């Protein structure tokens, strides 16, 4: 059975505004600007009108109060003289023969009413009102009091002042209250309101016209910017906008957009290049994993099938398997180490470090291999070089990576030199060799993650392609920088910086290496660290 359709009139009340809101088109930026300017102008006019009305009321009030205060002081001086010279310093029956205001009340020092002149249209009972007695009695405290008075249909302003004996004792003898109906500025305010409304209408028209012109000028560059963004959304990163002639916020926005577009276009190109590097890296890592795994599989099957019978041959085969496993472990350790460093999760044990001593210890570790290859090692760091604030193990790994990398690319008879110099608050360290050098095409990329090239230092001479990336990550974690210079056929120089230790920057005396950083065998010979250093 079909249900009857629900008409708009039958919709719930809560659903009708939502439907109406969905039908209304959204306001454009130009409309919002015009409405906002108009709202600001009208708001300013309303605030101005309120301020004018408040100022007029305040002016009328203060003017009447000031007039009443002057009149009250005049009446008070006359009554004080009358009390002293006519009444002999004692209150008695008396009357006033000079003009009085709408309401005049005199009380003695005890608050008893001595004289009351009610306003026109009120009888003598008006003088017995509590509000009048309280207002007059307030001045008996010795202070002048003013304010609004409302009693039995009378509305006005009053001033109450104390009365004193004019003789030398200046004793309080009573109080005087005068009051007048409050003047209303309604006619004046009516004229002012009409003028403000007329001015507001003219200002509103002018604001609408001005805001339309200004909004058009503001939104035109934004429309071109929006069109360029839409095209960039479709993948066209070559879009640029023409900055407006005025160097204001819109001009800076256009320039910033163009700079952002340049950066995005460069980043997209870099991402594509990195993606290609990643693909090449996966292929290289797969090759590096496949070679030892194939060897391990073949040797393992030979042992399992008892193809190798001789005990000595079986032992040699087991050692080959162990070496291949160690090679895989070094590759995995390099990847894990690099990931920790680049993610910032690696913990650095920072302490003052004597770099000259650390270089001597590092060269002692790698010296046997260099001597066998006919390579000379030199440490030219001045023993008085100030200490750096660094992690001894990490910097040792940096030195081993760079020196071993230089050894593997330096022919017999070559030289590897380690030096350092102070640069402000940093210490620059360099490792220079006389090896084959690096091709200029590969030089800008040798510190990139997973970059491998046969002509680069991270090439296929036994390294994983991660050593120089690890070096850069360690140096960066210490707050330093690393760079490379190379000339093919003449050699390479790798430079990196480390921060000087605090409170040691102005001192020239070195500190000793921290104990417990090196490993030695039973005969005292220095052993290499437990982690690898392949590049």
Automatic annotation (TrEMBL):
InterPro entries: HAMP_dom, HATPase_C_sf, HATPase_dom, His_kinase_dom, HisK_dim/P_dom, HisK_dim/P_sf, Sensor_HK_Regulatory, Sig_transdc_His_kin-like_C
CDD domains, A to Z: HAMP (cd06225), HATPase (cd00075), HisKA (cd00082)
Cytoplasm as UniProt keyword: no
Reactions catalysed, as given in the entry: ATP + protein L-histidine = ADP + protein N-phospho-L-histidine
Transmembrane segments: 34-60, 195-215
Record-level GO cellular component terms: membrane
Enzyme class: transferase
Organism: Thermogemmatispora tikiterensis
UniProtKB keywords: Kinase, Membrane, Phosphoprotein, Transferase, Transmembrane, Transmembrane helix, Two-component regulatory system
Ranges in coiled-coil conformation: none
Name of the featured protein: histidine kinase
Keyword Membrane: yes
Gene3D superfamilies, sorted: 1.10.287.130, 6.10.340.10, Histidine kinase-like ATPase, C-terminal domain
Compositionally biased spans, kind Basic and acidic residues: 515-524
Molecular function per GO: phosphorelay sensor kinase activity
Compartment(s) of residence: Membrane
EC assignment: 2.7.13.3
Domain named HAMP: residues: 216-269
Highest rank taxon of the organism: Bacteria
Stretches for region Disordered: 499-535
Chief location: membrane
